[in-house]
Design goal:
Layout (H helix, E strand, L loop, with lengths): L5 E2 L1 H8 L3 H9 L6 E3 L2 E5 H15 L1
Length: 60
């Protein structure tokens, strides 16, 4: 996964092993940044990696 790669919501769902509503909740709460291109939501791969790191640090 490249840092500049933009992931779709289903991509993020698969990587985090969570449902669609959870991904949209993370986006809505601004814990997972995203951009909209046309009608499509895209999440930077870097943001997903940072989210995982932040959650691991918070759990430690």
């Amino acid at each position: 996964m490249r840092d500049d790669e933009l992931l779709t919501v289903p991509d993020v769902m698969a990587r985090l092993k969570v449902g669609r509503s959870t991904v949209y909740d993370l986006i809505r709460s601004r814990r997972l940044p995203s951009i909209t291109i046309g009608r499509c939501r895209r999440i930077p791969a870097r943001a997903v990696r940072e989210y995982i790191t932040d959650e691991l640090e918070a759990a430690a």
